[in-house]
Amino acid sequence: MALSSLVPQTVSSISLLAKSTITGLQIWSLHGLLLTIEASGFSYVYHVQATLGLALDILLSEENGLVDFQQGVGSLINAIVAVLGPELAPGSIFFSRCKSVIAEISSQQETATLLEYAGKYLSVRFTQQLVLFAPQAVSVHSHVQTLLSTVSAGQQPTLRHLAVSTLRHLIEKDPVSIIDEQIEDNLFHMLNEETDSEIGSLVRATILRLLLALCPSRPSHWILICRNMVLATSGRRDAGNDSLNGPENESGMDFGEDDENMVSSSKGMPVQGYAFGAHMINHNRDKHLRYRTRVFAAECLGHLPIAVGKNPAHFDLSLARKQAANGEISGDWLVLHVQELISLAYQISTIQFENMRPIGVGLLTAILDKFEKSPDPELPGHLLLEQYQAQLVSAVRTALDASSGPILLEAGLQLATKIMTSGVLGGDQAAVKRIFSLISRPLNDFKDVYYPSFAEWVSCKIKIRLLAAHASLKCYTFSFLRRHHSGVPDEYLALLPLFSKSSSILGKYWIGVLKDYSYICLCLDAKKNWNPFLDGIQSPLVSSKVQPSLEESWPVILQALALDAVPVNTYGNSDATDENSSNNSLISGYSMVELKLEDYRFLWGFALLVLFQRQHPAPCRQIIPLSSEVRYGGDSPTEETNTTALKQYEIVLPVLQFLLTERFFAEEFLTLDSCRELLQVFCYSIYMDDSWNTLAISVLLQVVQNCPSDFLESEALGYQAMELLLAYIFSVFQRTVGVLSDHPKTLDMEDLISPLFITAKTLVKRFEAKKQFKSVVVAFVLVGYKCIREALTELSFSTVYDFVKCTIPLVKKLVDGEHLVLDIDAM
C-alpha cells in the first residue's frame, strides 16, 4: 500500500516496453507487468482496462503464434481475474475481454502440439481463477464441463493435475451446486486410468472431499456407485455358507441367492432418494476396473457411516420414516439403506481378494459403531442390528480363519469386540458360544503371533485386539449374569468354568498390556524396571502405531481384570467349605483372575490415576485418554454410549468395587492409607453429577462394609468416611429438595437414598456408641424433617417419609440410655 503511488508510473513504463518490436523485450515486459499486478493487488484495478487492450494488441499481432507470447498474455489475464474478483460480473466489458483473450489463445490448437497444450493449460488456469476469485461469473455447470474435458489420461500430467485441483476447489466452494453434475463416476474412472501417482492421490482426495460434501443428502447414491465399482466383476470366492451362490448379471447388481448367513439381496428393492441418479454409469467400463480402483471404492464405503454427518435421522429408523413421509429435506437417510450397506459390507468381507476383506470387516465395525443403539420400531425393546447377528458373526468367523492374514485377523478381532460391547447379540447364547470358540484358537497360539514380513506393530495390534475381544466377552457374560440373577441359560453357565480356567493366562496378558500402556502414557524411562509385554513397544514408532488400539482397549481390559478377581492363594489354608461359601459371594460363583500383591497395587494406582487426572488444570490434556471408538463394557451402569457422554469414572469406579472385596482386605492387599487416599479422591469430586454419586456411594459402601474394624477405629478414616457420607446426603438433598414435585428431571431418589442409608447404617453399626456421633443421627433426622416440610406432592412426601423411617434404627442404636420417640404417623 505504501508503494501504490508508484504503480501508475511503473505500469506506463513497462507498457511502453511491451509495445517494442523486439521479441525478447516484449516477453520480459509482459512478465514485468505480471509481477506488478501480483504486487499491487487492488491498486491495479484502475489499470486493468489499459492492460487488457495491450494484451489484445499483442495477441493480434503477427508474432502472436509464439508460445511465450501465449503464456505471457494468458498469465496477465489470470492475474487480472484475481485482482477484479467479485467485480468481474457476467456481461461486463472486463469479463468479456478476459474471456475473449483466453478463447483466442485456446483456439490456436491446430498450429502445434506445444501451442495446443499451452492453450488448454491457460484455459483451465482461467477456470481455476474464476472459481477461486469470481465464482459468480460463470455457472458451475460450465466449469464442470470445461474441467471434465481435460481430465482424460491423454492430456499432459500438469494439465490433468490442474484440472483435478480446480474440481476440488469447486467442490469446496459450492458443494450444493455440484450435486446435480454427477461427476463421481467420471472421477472414479479417471482414477482407474491415471498412471501418475501424485495425480492419483489428488483424485482420491477429491473423491473423498466430494463424498463428505454430498453424502449427507445422498447416501444411497454413493452406496450404488461404490457397489458398482467394487462388485464390477463376478470374482467372489465360494466359501460354503459364507458365499453368494448364483451368477451375477451383466451390471453386477445381482447378489445371488441368500442363505442363512446372508442379508437378503437388494435386488428388486426400490432404492429411495437419489440412488438411481447413477444411471449414467457406464457398466462396460466397470468390467475393466483395476484392482486399486475397486479397493478405493471399498474404502469410500468405509467412510460412509461417518460421512453422512450427525443428523439423528440417519441413524434412527422411526425418525427417518417420519421425515421421509413428511417430505422433509431429501428423505434419503442412511438407516433406510442399512440392509443394503450390511449386505455389501459382508460381500466385501468374503470377496476373493484377501486384501479387500479387512475393508469389508472394518465397514461392519463402523456400521456397528453408528447403529449399535438404534432401536427397531417393529420390535420394541430390541435393537435394529439384532436381525443381522448371523452376518456379523459369520464375518468374524471368516476373518479369524487360520489362513487369514494379520490385517484381516486384526479387523476380525476388532469386529468381535464391537459385537460383544454393542449389545446387538440380544442374549443369543449360541452366538456368544460361537464367538468364544472363534477367539479361543488365536489365544492358544498367542506367544507365536509374529509376522516377519510385516512391521513390528502389526503383531502388537493383533495381540491387543485379541485380549480386548476376550475381555469384552467376559464383560458381556457378567453383565448378562447381573441382569438375570435367576434362570441363567445353561450355555452361559457352561462358559464360566472356561473363563475361570483361562483367567490364569489372560490375567497375566491383560496386566502386561496395561503396564505397557501406562509406561507409554506416563513417558517413563524404558530402561528402568520395564520388561515390556509387547515386543518392540519401546520404539517410539511402534508405540505411536499401537497407542490408538491401546486407548480403545484399556477400559474393557481393566473391567475384565477386576470381575470376580481374587488374591492369589486366597484359599491355600482354608477348607473346602469356606472356599465354597466364599465362591458363592462371587457373581459367577468362580474365582477368576488371581492377582499378586504387585499386580493389585498396579491396578489400584492405575485406577486412581484415571480418577485424579480429572483434576488436571487442562482437561484436554489427559494422561490416559479415552478413545472416541471405545464403548463401555457390560458392567457399566450407564446405558449411554455417545462419544460426547463418555466418562472415565464410569469405567473405573465399578472396577474399584471389585478391588474392595473382603478377600483383598483379608489378605492385607489394602492398607489404611489406600482407603484414605481413595476417600480423598471422593472428597475432591463431591459436587459431581448423579452418575458419579451413585457409583461413589457404592464404592464407599464397599470400604465401610469390608474394611477391618481397626481401620474404622482410626479417627483419620472413620471421621473422613462419616464426613463424606454426610456431604453426599446434603449434596443430594440440596439438589433435589427444590424439584421434589413431579418434574421431568426429578432424580430417582431410590437409586441414591437406598445405598446412602445402607452405608450410614453399616458405618454407625461398626462404630462404638460414642457421644460425638449422636450429632450425626440428629443431622439425619433434621434433614428428613426439612424435606417433609418442603414436600409438595404425595409422591415426594412418601419418598421423604421412607427416608426418615430409615433413621429410626440408627437413633435407637446410637443413643445409649436415652429414648427418642419419633411418632412418624402423628405428623
TrEMBL record:
The family database entries (InterPro entries) matched by this protein are listed as: ARM-type_fold, Laa1/Sip1/HEATR5-like_HEAT, SWEETIE
Pfam families referenced in this protein's UniProt entry, alphabetically: Laa1_Sip1_HTR5
Region (Disordered) spans which residues?
Answer: 237-262
Please list which residues make up the signal peptide.
none
State the source organism's domain of life.
Eukaryota
* GO BP term, example: carbohydrate metabolic process
Its protein name is HEAT repeat-containing protein
